[in-house]
């Protein structure tokens, strides 16, 4: 690298607005277990199983689900931080890791913010070194990388003169999360994956960071994948929502359709599990009993059938595929598939 | 007049180390009646967990300086010896924590841990204690309880572990249950199950409950009364309906406004600027004044007293009217 760049520019849009920014096709990740005699007979954790979804340019796609549903594995697969068992990720029409889009180029365009703001910063680098690190790796001169870091600090609402030379341990959780956001933006990415970015923050700080994320999205023309277990936060942030259960998509669609007319019983239960915020309308019955099952030996057929109030024998035999539901979303439930054999399924037109 | 279950007056807790003294709790006073549930709401560092631990004398003894009055079920907690405390804990007051994995002992089975508690406090024989353990697991709705008695904590899911911890806490039928963010680490569908379980157990066993949380939704589900804590003080206290619908103190208003709930889509969230004060020094006036949009002269010289516009609902703010 002889000529150091003086500025990093956001890479141009290739396929136009109609082409999804990110397409995930048949993405599967199984983790083999190393127990069992000589490694034989050991099971696999089916962390993510045959995942398909698109992320449209300029939108925020929310991903919700409980622990073990595969939402974090999904984010790591999309970031190419681990290799999928099968399946591929296509970014703006180009296969990630292929000849057109090598990983280094791809990672310039996709960045990530993690939940643990402290663990994701190098404790021995100052804030401006941390933020300027990636631009330097991608060919920016050190001086320009530092200047970029200071611009970004201002953009995330931290005074550069006050914070640039500090170390991560000198900052509060909210400030550190702002640093992580600034660092994610340092390469001018087009897609930012936010993996539980506000879960570890206090409520008043959470609101500040959510406002900031909305501002930055407009300012830098970003697309977000927003992963959270907090349904209220996902509703506030997202245009479309993807609900995951035990490694599969349960339901996907616009935030209006899903929150107003959930088609999958799991989505409905998840929404009904939110504390009511109204002391006069307290919940009386839990919508679901028990914990999510173990992803090592997930239930057969529909993985939700063991906890579902509408389960019928057909549910344990047939794997439901995503199918259009009345409010315009898609749901993987036999009750929305005509002729599926479930008693509540719509009748097939004669 | 009979004494309330919990009687706290001007509780102060300081943590002293060589480098600094942290004033974690700066004059907390409240009463809790039997069968009542109080929710202490606050952000990290507000002193809510320290207050809770003071009710059970669980703060580290050497570094903690306590003053004020703390009486639980007629016992004076501040002056009680460690030996006396060991008797009070379990039978009078008991506590559940956020992380069941760290609160349970990993090398003993669930059944053994429950049996140990009842043998120590109620002097039951081993077989009677085992029978009691089974009863308790059924009480907290652990499926196939008999088999789960022989399980180690790591063999249980998060929700079951939390239920096992509740079973241990209830094993000696305490009059007061303290809960320190017991549902924060749980998934949404499990959290609501645990909240409903705690509410049912409280009614059935007639316990008083003090619940510490940062989640308004949790308070709305479980509390009779809510106290909002800031910088080591209660700054507002009132019945849950009044507090959630008409918060008086600007901090409580900010906290409610900053909580994301449905119906806010497309609107900007209200935030509280700045950060809580450093508690190495006790704030002179109202501790929230530096972040408050309505700050005035009267806020600064001394901490505002509680002012109560309606019975039972009061806040430490000079702007709140005092009912005659």
Automatic annotation (TrEMBL), chain A:
Which GO CC annotations does the UniProt entry carry?
Answer: plasma membrane
User: Its domain of life?
Assistant: Bacteria
Q: Which InterPro entries match?
A: AAA+_ATPase, ABC_transp_ATP-bind, ABC_transporter-like_ATP-bd, ABC_transporter-like_CS, Oligopep_ABC_C, P-loop_NTPase
Enzyme type, top EC level:
translocase
Q: Which Pfam families match?
A: ABC_tran, oligo_HPY
Q: List residues of the ABC transporter domain.
A: 33-271
Q: Name one GO molecular function term.
A: ATP binding
Record key words, sorted: ATP-binding, Cell inner membrane, Cell membrane, Hydrolase, Membrane, Nucleotide-binding, Repeat, Translocase, Transport
- Entries under SUPFAM superfamilies matching the protein: P-loop containing nucleoside triphosphate hydrolases
Catalyzed reaction equations? glutathione(out) + ATP + H2O = glutathione(in) + ADP + phosphate + H(+)
Q: Where in the cell is it found?
A: Cell inner membrane
Keyword Metal-binding assigned: no
Kindly state a single biological-process term from the GO annotations of this entry: peptide transport
- Region listing for Disordered, in residue ranges: 273-296
How the protein sits in the membrane? Answer: Peripheral membrane protein
What EC designation does it have?
Answer: 7.4.2.10
Q: Which SMART domains match?
A: AAA
- Write down the PANTHER family for this protein, in alphabetical order: GLUTATHIONE IMPORT ATP-BINDING PROTEIN GSIA, TRANSPORT ATP-BINDING PROTEIN
Entry similarity comment: Belongs to the ABC transporter superfamily. Glutathione importer (TC 3.A.1.5.11) family.
Q: What is the role of the protein in this entry? A: Part of the ABC transporter complex GsiABCD involved in glutathione import. Responsible for energy coupling to the transport system.
Q: What is annotated about its quaternary structure and interactions?
A: The complex is composed of two ATP-binding proteins (GsiA), two transmembrane proteins (GsiC and GsiD) and a solute-binding protein (GsiB).
Protein name in UniProt:
Glutathione import ATP-binding protein GsiA
Automatic annotation (TrEMBL), chain B:
What's in the keyword line of the UniProt record? ATP-binding, Cell membrane, Membrane, Nucleotide-binding, Transport
Major location (coarse): membrane
Indicate whether Mitochondrion appears among the record's keywords.
no
Task: Report if keyword ATP-binding is assigned.
Answer: yes
Q: Which stretches make up the ABC transporter domain?
A: 6-256
Per its UniProt record, what Pfam families does this chain match? ABC_tran, oligo_HPY
Superkingdom classification of source: Bacteria
Q: Which InterPro entries match?
A: AAA+_ATPase, ABC_Ni/Peptide_Import, ABC_transporter-like_ATP-bd, Oligopep_ABC_C, P-loop_NTPase
Q: Which GO terms describe its cellular component?
A: plasma membrane
The record's subcellular locations are: Cell inner membrane
How would you describe this protein's topology in the membrane? Answer: Peripheral membrane protein
- A single BP term in Gene Ontology: peptide transport
GO MF assignments? ATP binding; ATP hydrolysis activity
The similarity annotation says: Belongs to the ABC transporter superfamily.
From the Swiss-Prot or TrEMBL record, give the protein name: Peptide/nickel transport system ATP-binding protein
């Amino acid at each position: 690298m002889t000529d150091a760049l003086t500025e990093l520019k956001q890479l141009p849009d290739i396929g136009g607005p109609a082409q999804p920014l990110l397409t995930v096709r048949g993405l599967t990740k199984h983790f083999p277990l190393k127990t069992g005699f000589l490694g034989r007979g050991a099971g696999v954790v089916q962390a993510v199983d045959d995942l398909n979804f698109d992320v449209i340019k300029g939108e925020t796609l929310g991903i919700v689900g409980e622990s073990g549903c595969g939402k974090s594995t999904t984010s790591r697969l999309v970031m190419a931080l681990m290799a999928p068992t099968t399946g591929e990720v296509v970014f703006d029409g180009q296969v990630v890791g292929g000849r057109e889009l090598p990983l280094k180029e791809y990672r310039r365009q996709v960045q990530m913010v993690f939940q643990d703001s402290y663990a994701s910063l190098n404790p021995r680098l100052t804030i401006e070194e941390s933020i300027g690190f990636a631009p330097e790796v991608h060919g920016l001169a050190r001086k320009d990388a530092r200047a970029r870091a200071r611009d970004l600090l201002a953009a995330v609402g931290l005074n550069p003169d006050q914070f640039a030379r500090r170390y991560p341990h000198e900052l509060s959780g909210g400030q550190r999360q702002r640093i992580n956001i600034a660092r994610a933006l340092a390469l001018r990415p087009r897609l930012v994956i936010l993996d539980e970015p506000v879960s570890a923050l206090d409520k008043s700080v959470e609101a500040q960071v959510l406002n900031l994320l909305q501002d930055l999205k407009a300012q830098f023309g970003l697309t977000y994948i927003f992963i959270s277990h907090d349904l209220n936060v996902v509703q506030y942030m997202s245009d479309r929502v993807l609900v995951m259960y035990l490694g599969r998509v349960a339901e996907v669609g616009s935030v209006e359709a899903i929150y107003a007319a959930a088609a999958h019983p799991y989505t409905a239960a998840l929404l009904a599990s939110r504390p009511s915020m109204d002391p006069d309308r307290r919940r009386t019955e839990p919508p679901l009993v028990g914990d999510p099952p173990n992803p090592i030996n997930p239930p057969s057929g529909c993985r939700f059938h063991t906890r579902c109030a509408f389960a019928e024998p057909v549910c344990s035999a047939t794997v439901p595929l995503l199918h259009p539901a009345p409010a315009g979303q898609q749901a993987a439930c036999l009750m929305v598939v005509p002729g599926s054999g479930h008693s509540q399924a719509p009748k097939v037109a004669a | 007049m009979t004494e309330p279950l919990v009687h706290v007056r001007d509780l102060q807790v300081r943590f002293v180390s060589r480098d600094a003294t942290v004033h974690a709790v700066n004059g907390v006073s409240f009463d809790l009646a039997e069968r009542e549930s109080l929710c202490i709401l606050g952000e990290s560092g507000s002193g809510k967990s320290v207050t809770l631990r003071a009710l059970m004398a669980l703060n580290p003894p050497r570094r903690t300086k306590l003053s004020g009055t703390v009486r639980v079920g007629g016992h004076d907690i501040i002056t009680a010896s460690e030996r006396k405390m060991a008797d009070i804990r379990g039978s009078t007051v008991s506590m559940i924590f956020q992380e069941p994995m760290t609160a349970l002992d990993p090398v003993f089975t669930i059944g053994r841990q429950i049996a140990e508690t009842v043998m120590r406090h109620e002097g039951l024989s081993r077989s009677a204690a085992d029978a009691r353990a089974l009863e308790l697991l059924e009480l907290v709705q652990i499926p196939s309880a008999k088999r789960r008695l022989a399980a180690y904590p790591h063999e249980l899911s998060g929700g079951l572990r939390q239920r096992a911890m509740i079973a241990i806490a209830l094993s000696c039928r305490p009059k007061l249950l303290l809960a320190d963010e017991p549902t924060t680490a749980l998934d949404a569908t499990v959290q609501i199950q645990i909240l409903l379980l705690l509410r049912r157990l409280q009614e059935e066993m007639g316990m008083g409950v003090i619940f510490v949380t940062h989640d308004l939704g949790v308070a709305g589900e479980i509390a009779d009364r809510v106290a909002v804590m800031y910088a080591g003080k209660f700054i507002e206290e009132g019945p849950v309906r009044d507090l959630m619908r008409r918060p008086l103190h600007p901090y409580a208003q900010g906290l409610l406004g900053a909580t994301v709930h449905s119906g806010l889509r497309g609107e900007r969230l209200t935030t509280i600027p700045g950060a809580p004060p450093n508690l190495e020094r006790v704030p002179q006036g109202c501790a929230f004044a530096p972040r408050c949009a309505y700050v005035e002269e009267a806020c600064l010289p001394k901490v505002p007293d509680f002012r109560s516009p309606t019975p039972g609902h009061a806040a430490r703010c000079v702007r709140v009217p005092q009912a005659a």
